[in-house]
């Protein structure tokens, strides 16, 4: 392994990493079109663009996952051309990929240390030391778990932290982070920024991909804006203001972007009537403790809390997929059969899961079939589906959500993350639900699409839906919700409405209870 | 490590994340469900049949199970990577025929030739699976046919059975006893211990699990996916060949009709042992329990005595169902 | 070419029992003392019978039934039977288990001739007499086992060839439906047939040989393919009756008439013999499965101290148009 | 930017490549037919065509059910035993008429499917071991029912099912064709069909989407059992005998191979009905070619291995692991 570059970076240094005229085609898609990018030691470089712009693809080319069709990758002035990720890692190029890229069934410790486990005599793995090292490392990232548990038992956010810790804790010269914060809490984000600052100090170059613009401005030096696989802007981030950046990404002019504001929530809807959703006393051992909440039509209720607070579990419990020890759910006054997702869907409950890949998309199916999936019974007569009706609904939603695909028959696995998210949203909207449970709905979605999704949530609420919004993006949570219920350790610890409903308010509620119970 | 100092002011989480005792017991049973069922079955067998718990009978079960066990060891590795090896039955038979054929050049040849040839069979399969990216099921199905074809051509369409002469070291290896147990039993135990250590305590073992758990992620984490897969199939081929060779030594001859249908028994044993066919999870201790379970079931059916062959099959299928259901219930993972 | 002697050996009734061929190998010489076993009373002892294949074809059904019936008749209360289900490893462990269960004598229908080493070792350590039926074990008689009772498969092949030569008048093209690959029976029935044809009828060519796995369906399918690729074949030698019957179905399906293609097979099942009557099959060489009487008779002789020959070859009958009609009832 | 879904164009070259990957099995069949026309005497004849189609019909029917099961990321090892069970049941009930006998045989298949399906859907047993139980026990049961014996079948109506033709097409082939169309229709046009591939593609997502996962799984195994029973009935009619000891032996391997060669990945989430039929045809052609050329078993097995690999290689990309 190579040693990290020790000295501080300065402008005169040669580029540490360079991508030159990279072209990458997939069957039918030109994902990268002569993309050039160069990084100096100690530079934190933002890579931004709409969903499907080619960010992840560029990263995969740099780390040897994909072979470029044209162009070359150079490391410290020499042609690198990594054959595979292992090759890249040996040369000191580490990446945290967008879809986490860990092995869910392996234990946390093994995931963290895979390939560099502490050894004993005979080269055998020293399990005890491995667990200690892992626990210690993770604790420094604010994650305290039993590292012997399989990774899958952690929430997405904690998994993300494990992936980060893994990438950063080896000798690296370049660290690439593809949307590392998409499911992190403010607190974890701070931890992460601390880490990045340290990397910068050690002369390590960082490529940082995120759809959260304020993060970019806080830590990035340079920026590359991609649109449809082409570089549309490159330079220092400080030279670009936010509006200009967004307009570059979206390819729209500044004036138009300005008129659209930060979040697209209008807050125009007014909750009314009897609650559609009433969840009472939801209890599941170790996970949920007597959680009750109600949502009225035209109301957006936010769920706040730290990672592992039980927000996802609450949503899953309502959707009938989490085995419950006690408690129940009614929709429009009618009880929903417990532990049956089918019954919940039929009652009008829709859950947009947080883990898109594992719980959302069906990768073998087309965009069309993915969209139609949950609504099939409605689109069929006597069990025979009507292609015409499906086509109509699919077309409607592909337009309405502006899903970027070669067509309805493109395999959904080929779409960019953001577009996959839109497909899932379309799947649920097609069922015409009464209650919409959104678990991190804008996770990994670009600014344009994010605004669209937010507007859509607004619009849906206005149209009479009851919405439960789970988001790690506090701004989104506060702006989007009429009311925020705060969870901790699987129990409700507070509720904020009206004037209390501010980012600070939510933070204090969480923090108060955390401190209170920490001892 | 480049991260030294931590931002560890207040930890985000509480001790709720430490597993409860219940969870840990649960995990223990989950990992050893097959063993639990095996113990149960041994108890039932001992109580029901006086002739069952004798040293001689148990010794018979041990030696009879040792050959499929070796094969199952290789299969465990294969299945944990998310693959499957249907060729093992044919390769097992091929190993035996080769050993009997090659023993004319000495015991070493009698062991090395089958190991080498069967290893090559595994290598070819592994390359086709890992490099050419063909489906393991199909590749090893072709291997099943190919290895059987090879065996038939060596033995003149099965007309010639090569013998392993009495008194050769090879024959003694297969037939010798120590404390009432055949040598192959000890060898099997040693192989399983090594297999367990390799799987749990080496980088290779970690790679095997990682590939089965999420192949793409494993590749992203820098696991040498293709190489590991190739090695796993070579291992499976060699273990099947070794098992066949030792079995031939025990039988003193390279019997040509062995091994048909063996692949399903072995796969069943591995899966009953708690290894997931989808890959990523499993253990060699489970596998040995699985193999013994099948052996004990067979033995118990014979203890019953006078069943016609058809009833034997029915009973054996029913037994299997009970065992499989029991094992599944015991090791049921919590979903979602 | 019949060397039949009317020495009925028990069983009797309408069903034809086995007939010992004369001369029966070398002179009887194996005694219980020479073998080294101790005397015991079979009626009160555990006797083990290990069958090789499922009782799912007429031969195995008749064989097992005959053993069981005879044991009952002899008053043997403790007959333990196992079935190897066509898996050789299983049969080996079956027999070991019989030994562990205290069997005093073993009757074995081996699935394979080789590979009996562990069983023979265990048995000889306990001086358990073994009688193998229908297939030989490749080992030393009167040392590793007492004796073998059964047909001579090679001879069956030769006799089938003789029938074939008669059917074709010494000239023509023959297809062989082989038994399962790697099986001793297949090997010997093929060897005997081919050797005899080569020796006696150079005018007969064997132009096609494919395995039918001893099963009717496979025999039918292979024959269907053969009819089209080798339309000039005049005769079929099927290594068991089931494949012959499959061939008959195939020929019927292809619009052939009875006797267009001569079929000779081995086994002597009732179905096959009745097809001789209807003209579809030319001749069948019998392989008599009723081993019970002969096996237990041999065992009791042995236990009485009488000398036993190292092999008891039974004389199988032949069925053709001359005797098929009267014999259908006595076929198995 | 307009308000339409953004359509990205796909070049023609990519389409050809994708076609070849998806339809390699058809290319392999075509190649094999050409080779046979050149090297095999009497290959092009209606009799030969008939023989191949009639022989492959039961395999096709079983493979259809297998394709559905594999689509859900499962596998059904018990199909051969179901055929044995069906064939064993027929002679018992022929006395009540052909219809009754066939009905009972089919019910037998459904019963096996229910057991398999329950184990998989409700007990969560891995499909390969769940169906292994009846793979072992089913044939035993068939033999018990049949008293271990092969029985000749003389009922002319039943025999007609195996040997008569409809406008020149043998009846078993007609049945297989009709069932193919039906199954293709189920996969393409019904809720059930869409749901089963979704379950195979991502079971968790299917649960979360509210699909009746268990019901669908149960039904899939029932269909597989039913189709195997149909194949058992046809095979009985053609063999003119009920032979539970050997009917359908190794059928599970043939069927799985047909399905996989036809482009359905064992990892589930996709079902190729026509590909499956083509896969069965390909295997049939390979076997026929080897038999017709009278190759010894050793060579035949090795050649078969190579051809299967070649076919899958050609269809690579369509198959998963
Ligand atoms: N394996 C693949 N096969 C075919 N097309 C692909 C593949 N991977 C990516 N693409 C296509 O390449 C383009 C770029 O995708 P990429 O994942 O790089 O986008 P991204 O910028 O990372 O988007 P997001 O912000 O949503 O993650 C998209 O149009 C996508 O559909
Ligand atoms: N930071 C962490 N440290 C330790 N364990 C964690 C952490 N985050 C999550 N977990 C584990 O993951 C499980 C699920 O947490 P998870 O993300 O996802 O719950 P959640 O409250 O729904 O979170 P989110 O609000 O992010 O959806 C928790 O029960 C806990 O065991
Ligand atoms: Mg991306
Ligand atoms: Mg969550």
Structure described in brief:
The complex is a heterotetramer of chains A (519), B (336), C (332) and D (321). By secondary structure, chain A is α/β, with parallel strands linked by helices.
Give structural attributes.
heterotetramer, C: 332 residues, alpha/beta, 11 helices, elongated, D: mainly alpha, ABC transporter involved in vitamin B12 uptake, BtuC, two-stranded antiparallel ribbon, 4 strands, globular, disordered C terminus, binds adenosine-5'-triphosphate, binds magnesium ion
Draw up the topology in text.
The complex is a heterotetramer of chains A (519), B (336), C (332) and D (321).
Chain A: E1 17-26, E2 29-39, E3 44-49, H1 55-62, E4 70-75, E5 78-79, H2 85-90, E6 93-96, H3 108-113, H4 127-139, H5 156-168, E7 174-178, H6 186-201, E8 205-209, H7 213-219, E9 222-227, E10 230-236, H8 242-250, H9 254-258, E11 277-284, E12 288-295, E13 299-304, H10 311-318, E14 326-331, E15 334-335, H11 341-347, E16 349-352, H12 356-360, H13 367-372, E17 380-381, E18 384-385, H14 387-400, H15 417-429, E19 435-439, H16 447-462, E20 466-470, H17 474-480, E21 483-488, E22 491-497, H18 503-518
Parallel strand pairs in A: 3-8, 3-9, 6-7, 7-8, 13-20, 13-21, 16-19, 19-20
Antiparallel strand pairs in A: 1-2, 1-4, 4-5, 9-10, 11-12, 11-14, 14-15, 17-18, 21-22
Chain B: H1 21-31, H2 33-48, H3 55-80, H4 88-102, H5 107-130, H6 136-154, H7 169-175, E1 177-178, E2 181-182, H8 183-201, H9 203-213, H10 215-220, H11 225-251, H12 262-272, H13 284-304, H14 309-330
Antiparallel strand pairs in B: 1-2
Helix pairs in contact in B: 2-13, 2-14, 3-8, 3-9, 3-11, 3-12, 3-13, 4-5, 4-6, 4-11, 5-6, 5-11, 7-11, 8-9, 9-11, 12-13, 13-14
Chain D: H1 12-39, H2 46-71, H3 79-93, H4 98-121, H5 127-145, E1 151-152, H6 156-163, E2 165-166, E3 169-170, H7 171-189, H8 191-201, H9 203-208, H10 213-239, E4 241-242, H11 251-261, H12 273-292, H13 297-314
Helix pairs in contact in D: 1-12, 1-13, 2-7, 2-10, 2-11, 2-12, 3-4, 3-5, 3-10, 4-5, 4-10, 6-10, 7-8, 8-10, 11-12, 12-13
One adenosine-5'-triphosphate (ATP) sits between chains A (143-145, 154-158, 305, 307-313, 354, 470, 472) and B (12-13, 17).
